[in-house]
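USER:
Try writing one entry.

ASSISTANT:
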Amino acid sequence: MMSNLSERLFPEILMQISVNSQSGTLVLCRNPTEKKIYFDKGSVVFADGNVPQDNFGELLINIGKLSPNQLADASKKVSADKPLTKVLVDMGLFSATEIREFLELQVQEIICPLFDWNSGEFEFKNGGAPLDKDLTLRISTPNLVLEGIRRIRNFEIIHKGLRGLESLVCLAPRYETKVVDLLLKPDEAFILSRIESTSSLSEILQVSPLGLELTQKALYAFICTGIIEFVTDSNKSCSPPPAGVYRANRSPEVGPRRPSSETLEGKEKEEEDFEAVRADILKMLENSKRLNYYDLLKVPSNASPDEIKKAYYGLAKKYHPDHYHQASATDLKNDLDTIFSTLSKAYDTLKVPATRGSYDARILKLEEAQTHSPEKPASSSSHASPAGVAQQKLAELNYRQGRGHFDQQDYWSASQAFRQSVRLEPENARYRYWLATCLSKNPKWRREAEEHFLKAIELEQLNAGFYVGLGLLYKEVGMLNRAESQLRQALQISPGDKAALEAIETLAKSKGTGKKSLKTLKNFFQKK
């Protein structure tokens, strides 16, 4: 398998290896750069290259996880039997789990620049790769392709992959099985929801509120990962969209047993109690088939991860099959298993920001399908256009995903989600505030954080929390007078604001210990 990248696009090469479950090494060269990607049964297990940035230690420095001095100390202890990864664990700098996560990031950072290559040579060498078992990973190739296409800057590749905007596409057979394993972002899932039958790419672009570049990248990613396919003479019968709603099958009622005469009153009371339990179980069974995950767990759609966790554990305890040992409950065992399984699936989906975002987008699709159903007339009181409503909902989906990432302290992913919300709804002060709060976590982003805090305050001038956020940012960089001014403004709006009061107290202590020089105080925000 030898060829040139001018003849075959890199994402399509990766997907061919994945679909065919091949094992071996893909070597790519474009002087002076050479990179190798190792596969096992179609999954990426490792990658390396001769570019300095591909070095594991340099990656850790670049992402702020390791200092140059720490890397120098660790490098002295590296030997043939003890690679850098093991040295870092032995030094107590990282756990084995963290090292594995960093290695996955390294592989991603080595491979993603290759998606912009449209020249160079490649060769696939069959056979197992001679790798250290401790370094072997198993990364989903389709998800790697999805992330790589998101990062493409050379739009010539996207245009070539799409074969022209008049190309016809449709959902691929059994596409649902592929979507389940993909970590789609809400905006990508939204674009997928627009593909309901055979459509031209230009038609999809016209109904997408997400912009030309983002939509085209998503469509090319769907084509590469096999979710959609080009319409040809051989596949004109494409997969229909999934049914939006299905009817719950209620289990048959079981009549009460007749109690013996000697314990009539006690048995009647016991059966009355159990019949109430039975009715509750059957109602929950119906709900598990009918309701979305938020309604099933009885939490709002903007619930925090802690709220979702608390709701799940409460319901899982109540409906756990092991809690019902009565002889009269044996016929409900399958129902309880179904309920418990659905509750667990709901929790597993909503606790992870990526899968929650994809699920939210599917809910949006169902809501829109019901809104545009011919059996449900459109409300005459609503003045918002369908595109405008969709844009608002999509902004909210990104906001929810951002909050999930933020709660998990994944500030990079959170900032990307909040940026999408701000892009879609730039006049929403709440989105501005959360983007600013997220950006303030990184010293390199603080100038931009200040701009978003100020914009949030401009949009909503009586929100004390916005002033507190800006005040804490100024305090963090040592601009104490500005910090005090913002915090006192917050207290004028809300005199009992606990966060503002605590910040004022710590600020007074900071001022009492001495003052920094004016140059130091302003170096974060001075204009170049």
Summary: The beta strands are 2-4, 24-30, 33-40, 43-49, 121-126, 168-171, 199-200, 228-230. The chain is about 55% helix and 10% strand. Residues 145 and 479 are 44 Å apart (CA to CA).
